[in-house]
Amino acid sequence: MQRVLFHSTIFGPIRSRRLGTSLGVNLSPNDGKICSFDCLYCEAGFNAQGPGTTGFPKREEVGRLLEEKLLAMAEAGEPLDVITFSGNGEPTLHPDFEEIIGDTLALRDRYYPSAKVSVLSNSTRLGDEKVCDALRRVDNNILKLDSALDPTIRQIDRPTSPQFTAERVISQLEKFGKDCIIQTMFLRGEFDGKTIDNTTPEEVAALIEAYRRIGPREIMIYSIDRKTPAENLQKVPSEQLARIASEITEATGIPVLTA
Description:
The protein is α/β, with parallel strands linked by helices. Helices cover 34% and strands 21% of the residues.
């Protein structure tokens, strides 16, 4: 089974396709995965691998490790564009997520004041006001919406909550408006004998309507770039992504970044 985990709380910096030189923060266990989605395309693998044994890193440990890394990078004169929360699962599931964001912003201001703080979230924790408050404080609040249609979003993202629906998450995303960036993974293929394709005219039209409702400052669309746990998935060609991006921008007036 595909299983590429980050075995540390702070990792990188790496070169991100969308964000530049990025120092990663993993708020999930270092030896397992904790996520409220079980996406077919997740590089960390399926949730069936288990949460591991290390548990969530402590708030104090996250701060200490991040400060050590930022100090070492600053003393070496290394560039940094962004501090990015991602890793082996959904970062907003950490019980001290709001406090860790506050710590991170303070450390950023001390060592790399021109760097941005980004959070890559799957949008499943937007019913928690503490999570929403923390997300409003970061520079790049990047929230996932892979389909605006229930059957497809359940097929691709496989939410662990039976209460999750596309309409519910779109309504929650509307609260952010220009305080968020929406990220959509486009793909096609097959899983469990069923065809998957969120690039059809029906899918794109539904997403466009959702983007209009949400009104984010930017939309990021991308496709598979690495091996996925579901083996029969296909990357959408860059030419088709460019056409979808143009269609979205023409219909909504919102800038679209492709990667």
